[in-house]
Structures are given as C-alpha cells and as structure tokens.
Amino acid sequence: MLKVNAFESEQIATLDAARQRLVERRQRLLGPAYQLFYDQPLHLVRGRGAEVFDSVGRAYLDLYNNVPSVGHCHPHVVAAMASQAGELNIHTRYLHEGILDYAERLLATLPEMPAHVMFTCTGSEANDLALRIARDHSGGTGVIVTRYAYHGITMAIAELSPSMGEYVPVAGDARLVDAPLHRPQRPEQVGAQFAAQVRAALADMRRHGIRPAALLVDTLFTSDGVFADPPGFLAEAAAAVREAGGLFIADEVQPGFGRTGSHFWGFQRHGLVPDLVTLGKPMGNGHPLAGVICQPHLVERFGQCAAYFNTFGGNPVAAAVGLAVLEVIEAEGLQANAARVGALLQAGLGSLAARYPQLGEVRGAGLFIGVDVLDDEGRADTRGARRLVNALRDEGVLIGASGPASNVLKIRPPLCLSAAQGERFLEALDAVLARS
Ligand code: PMP
Question: What pLDDT is attached to residue 159?
C-alpha cells in the first residue's frame, strides 16, 4: 500500500533539471524508505482552502488530503497556533486551561460516551496507546483487523497493518478478516457476514490459547478499498468481540471530524458506542495532534499503574490548534458541506460509471469516496487506476488510489471543497476517461 502511485527512481530522467536535483537530494538525505507520489512528482510551495500551488504557480485542486481538513493553512487555525506559540508552549505536567477547554469541547462531540481523552502526536501513537489499554483491561493480547488494514507505524501497530505488505510480519496473535462484502445481494448480509468472520477469528484464537484484546477497525475501511454501507453493519461484529471479552476500537483517523457528512464520527453511522476511539490526521489540520478517547473504567487501572506522559502530545499550542479546528468545522458548517458536496460527487461519479465501463462501484460517505477501476473483463485494474490518477494530476486534480489491488480511486478532499470545485473534478475525470 505504501507504494501506491509511487514515483519510481527509473523515471528520474523524465523530470526537468530542477526536480531531478530535488529528487536526488532527497534520496541522498532521507534514504530509500521515502516515497513520492505520481510519475511526475509535485513540488508544492503553498496551499489555500482546497487548492495547492506548485513552484511555478500552477494550482491543483486537492481531492486527496484529509489532513488539512478545514482547508490548507486556514487563517483561524494559523492565528490560534501563532498566538499560543507566542505566549507559552509547555507539556501536560502543568495546569493549563487551554488543554482542558479543548478536551471539553472535543468530548462534547461524543454525547453518547462518558469519556476521557489522552493526547498523542500521531495516529500510530494513538492506536498503540489504545492497544496497550485494551490489553491491560481485557487481559488478552489477540487483535482482529481487516486483511488490508492500515493502522500505523509503531512496532506493535505495524504488525496489525497487513497492507504494509509481506515484508512486515503480522503479529502471531492477530487474526485477519476480509473487508465487508462487495456488491452484496442484500445489504443485511454485510453485517452478518462480517460478524461471522469475527466470530470465526475469535474461535480460532480460543483454539490457539489466545485471549482476545480487541477488534480494531477503520470505520470507513480506507485501505481495504472504502466500505461505508449499509450504516449499522459493524454493530454485530463489535458485539461479538465484547461477548468474548475483547474491546471494540474505532480507528477514526480517516472518518472522524465530520468527513462522513451525516455524522461527526464514523462509528456513529453504525449506531455504535466504541470502547476506545483513536483520532489523528484532521484533528490538527496539519499540526501533529492525535489522541485516544476511552471510556473511564477502561483506563482506571492502567492510569494508576502505568501512568501516561507524552512530551508533545496535547501541549497548549496543539490544544489551541485543535480547538480552532473544531470552531471552524462548526462556524463554516463543514460537516453539512461534506454531506452536500459528497452527495453531488457520488451522483456525478455514478453517472460517469454508467457511461464508462472502466468505472465500477462507487462507495463512500460524505467526502470520502472510493470508485473501483475495472478492466474489460470487469477485474480490478491496477494499471488503469494508476493511469487515471496520473492523468488527473496532469489536469490539475489530485486524488489517490487504495485497496488490495490499488485499483480504487480514493477521493478525500478537505471538507471545504465547494460544489463548483466538485464539478471541476467531475469534468476533469470525464475528459480523462474520454481519452483513455
Ligand atoms: N489509522 C488510519 C486508519 C490511518 O489511515 C493512518 C494514517 N494513514 C493511521 C492510523 C496512522 O496515522 P499517523 O500516520 O498519524 O501515524
């Protein structure tokens, strides 16, 4: 997955001299593990709203980046950050109202769940901490994740991120389940089928003497290829893991903060109250801010016996940024915008899929949409998806790809994307498909 749509170093001769120098310098300084997107990598220097600009001033419509979720360099967020950075930045071992004001405002977005929030700097750290809490509380170690899940890069979490590929081992006490059913004949099959797999995984753990700690899922199944529907399908699987003594961890790094349009959190679409919720990416609009929300009883013993300190996590600058992000989502009605523009995009993509056989099923919620790219025989078309992603980049529109075959177009813009910008993307995709 980490190599999806990646620039290959053999392509360097096709770049202009300035970009060749930058790529070579990057390889020399950062080493071989880093990836660049696109056959022609972008050299970006500025961003505003849902647009980014390259070094020669060309604008690109950004339908890929969910981190600058309220818009690139949003002035209210930048001002909050600068103001707090000019006043005080310190860790969480001192009293500071800003941190508490933010925690209060954040927790108010989860009215159904009595909770604490613990701050981290990345989504990986959040999942790692959630896993430690789940293991401590359940007394188990086994974790169920989807077959092509991605949850982050710490040692424990990389082992629960099979989309990283075969070189990265899957934990011995993990069990993998398939992503929800594709094109189900009856929507109610989806939840039952997913829960049946979770029950089978729990039975297999039992057989091998492994006690379950958690079912950990991205509630939009991003890396598995984007599966949102039918709402509610996750509830039966979450109940199954709890029945077996494990916890349900909702990884909201992708769907959280209003992206699904209908709800603020992805798990709310499923009528669920998770035991633990992990947050990241959009939380700080680009500032490294992430966290774990957990039901208080789960962390009682862990809190007393293990304690928790994260030098940068939830510092006053991060808290000011996080608060500003929540204020913008509310003031600008971005969740409603995600619903409105997301519906427009889904309808437009559906019409394109009816005209072009290369496009298959359109799935998603709000401003997170996946579209299958298929070959003449209706099979996953990895190269076709890559061609479309690169052709759109040349048209000035940025999207990505996901799924086990990397053939699912991943459309995930900042939540401030306007209807006109959505139409511009649909026109560009139409033009690119007509040529391919
Ligand atoms: N969970 C999910 C679902 C993610 O998509 C990601 C990042 N792609 C992470 C966790 C890890 O977040 P981070 O990169 O901030 O560590």
Answer: 98
Residues facing 365 on adjacent strands? 368
For 266-283, how does the pLDDT look when each residue is reduced to its tens digit (9 = 90+)? Answer: 999 999 999 999 999 999
Residue with tokens 């039952």: 192
Give the model confidence (pLDDT) of 373-418 as tens digits: 999 999 999 999 999 999 999 999 999 999 999 999 999 999 999 9
Altogether, the residues listed in the chain come to a count of 436
Q: Is 146 in the pocket of ligand 1 (CB under 6 A)?
A: no
CB 63 within 8 Å of CB 411: yes
Q: How far is CA 41 from the centre of its chain?
A: 22
CATH of domain 42-70+333-435: 3.90.1150.10
User: Start-end ranges of CATH 3.90.1150.10 in the chain?
Assistant: 42-70+333-435
Nearest CA to ligand 1 atom 7: 152
Say if strands 400-402 and 397-398 run parallel, antiparallel, or are unpaired: unpaired
Average pLDDT over residues 171-185: 89
Whether the model clears a pTM of 0.90, i.e. scores above it, the answer is: yes
Contact 113, 264 (CB under 8 A): no
CATH number of 75-331: 3.40.640.10
Closest to 315 in 3D by CA, of 73, 98, 116: 98
How far, in Å, from the CA of 324 to the mean position of ligand 1? 22
**Strand ranges in 252-326 using DSSP code E only, listed in sequence order:** 276-279, 290-294
Q: Which two tokens stand for residue 435?
A: 């040529």
Using DSSP's 3-state secondary structure scheme, residue 410 falls into strand
Contacts of 104 (CB under 8 A, 6+ apart): none
- Indicate the top mutation candidate among 128, 145, 254 to test ligand 1's pocket, ranked by most ligand atoms within 8 A of CB: 254
Which of 238, 209, 240 lies closest to 140 in space, CA to CA? 209
Supply the pLDDT for residue 9. 84
